[in-house]
TrEMBL record:
PROSITE patterns: TAT. Pfam families: HXXSHH. InterPro entries: DUF1552, TAT_signal. Residues 1-41 form the signal peptide. This is DUF1552 domain-containing protein. Keywords: Signal. The keyword Cell cycle does not apply. It comes from Nannocystis radixulma. The keyword NAD does not apply. It comes from the Bacteria. Residues 65-85 are annotated as: Disordered.
Length: 459
């Protein structure tokens, strides 16, 4: 006869206990299965920087995207540089970025498998975005093309980097990442139409669009600083009790307890790093409805934050996927998404050039932010510029636009044009991760896997 020894239920009133200065303290726990019984069981300035710059609706179309695109492209290819290799000749649309010697990769496309039946999962608005940002396909479960509902299978590249142990290591920043936005126009107000950064499936990270909000978040002293200080002191006091409690818990409860403690540690980490790490604080900002003017403001604040180590990861969503932003300052009468589908090539060219001018303003600010050793933020950075597909007229994911700006501390070659027609887009991810010092034998998923990086760009 065998006997099963059952652990007694953990009291729902269980707390973690400790002492501060001889006085007893207690900290509550999250709900754990053990409480309900078996029935309910179940120095930053020397380190690299990674950033994403995202613009909507790709680039003007040409024959490289398909026969229909070629027949309806009055101006031909104004994106792909005419020369390859080092010190390439910039194309008309890359000319605004030329001063910063950006590198570009052309000809690349998603290689992830499209589940069958397709049900719209090959739509470039969604597939191109997902592969460019995560290296994986759309999550098939829950995908609905008529309502344009979708999510990712894994974190976007910025969030993958921000949480990777080889990136921050023992040199933490106050914010693991900053997610910023400029245009507030939306194709839909949910899911990936509203955000480009995801921590995982169904978990978008909302972008900060207000310069005043960003300034306050970065440079104001938290109003609840004393309350947070007391809470962190409590965390320190009860950690020993938490270690003892682990032995009384099952596997699922251990995970829940660890997640709870991780949250508390993150509060503690943020507080420890919240006290005046910036010697020079910029003036309080204004605001503007113009995309370049607002980019100027947001980029200035971001550069200051990066230069003094408040974060080392950011995403900068100039315009959201399939943007409906009306560029009336350029004489464009309708939202960009509609303009693309109407085949108004000249309008799309002028809009794309305007978005590249905004990208250049971000790079200007990163280049101008210099540390005491004369090293700029852009010297330390790898900034990945990308859109959701190659072009918006037919949603083609051929010829995805890819820009890599910055030197990443010498690990990236500047001013290089890599071209591989039909090449794997995930080579960009491998290049970025290796440049940042993250061990990456391969990257990409569900048919997009590759061990190769962009030769000529990775130093």
């Amino acid at each position: 006869m065998s006997f099963v020894i059952r652990k007694p239920p953990l009291s729902r009133r269980t707390v973690l206990r400790g002492a501060i200065g001889g006085a007893a303290v207690a900290l509550a726990l999250p709900p754990l299965e053990a409480m309900f019984g078996e029935a309910h069981a179940g120095d930053p300035t020397g380190n690299p920087i990674f950033g994403l710059f995202y613009w909507a609706n790709g680039v003007p179309w040409h024959a490289g995207h398909g026969a229909d695109q070629g027949a309806n492209s009055p101006g031909g290819d104004v994106w792909t540089p005419p020369t390859v290799g080092a010190d390439f000749t910039p194309s008309p649309l890359l000319t605004p970025l030329a001063a910063h010697k950006v590198s570009v990769a052309t000809g690349l496309e998603p290689k992830t498998e499209v589940p069958q039946p397709d049900n719209g999962q090959s739509d470039g608005h969604m597939r191109g975005f997902m592969v460019a940002m995560t290296g994986d396909r759309i999550r098939p479960e829950g995908f609905d093309h008529p309502s344009h509902t979708l999510t990712c299978l894994r974190p976007t590249l910025d969030q993958y980097v921000a949480t990777h142990e080889q990136f921050y290591g023992n040199s933490p920043s106050r914010f693991r990442s900053l997610c910023l936005g400029v245009s507030e126009a939306r194709f839909h107000d949910y899911g990936h139409w509203n955000a480009i950064s995801f921590t995982g499936p169904d978990s978008p990270v909302a972008a900060v669009h207000s310069p005043a909000q960003l300034y306050s978040m970065l440079f104001d002293v938290p109003a609840d600083l004393m309350a947070l200080t007391r809470r962190v002191t409590l965390i320190d006091a009860v950690m020993a009790d938490a270690e003892g409690l682990r032995g009384r818990l099952g596997g699922t409860d251990k995970q829940r307890l660890e997640a709870h403690l991780d949250h508390l540690r993150e509060v503690q980490r943020r507080l420890d790093l919240s006290s005046g790490t910036c010697d020079v604080i910029p003036a309080a900002p204004g605001d503007s409805a113009d995309l370049i003017a607002r980019t100027d403001i947001m980029a200035g604040l971001l550069a200051a934050a990066l230069n003094c180590g408040l974060t080392r990861v950011f995403s900068f969503m100039l315009s959201s996927p399939a943007t409906t932003h009306v560029f009336n300052n350029l004489g464009v009468p309708n939202g960009m998404h509609q303009v693309c589908h109407d085949g108004q090539w000249e309008y799309v060219r002028s809009i794309t050039e305007y978005q590249m001018l905004a990208f250049a303003r971000l790079l200007d600010h990163l280049a101008a932010a210099v540390d005491p050793m004369g090293v700029s933020v852009l010297d330390r950075a790898c900034v990945y510029g990308v859109s959701e597909y190659g072009e918006g007229y037919k949603h083609s994911t051929a010829e995805m636009p890819v820009v890599l700006a910055g030197g990443c501390g010498g690990t990236l070659v500047r001013g290089y044009h890599y071209r591989e027609q039909g090449g794997n887009l995930c080579k960009v991810h491998v290049t970025i991760l290796r440049a940042l010092g993250i061990d990456t034998p391969s990257y990409g998923f569900n048919g997009g896997e590759t061990t190769e990086h962009l030769t000529g760009i990775l130093a």
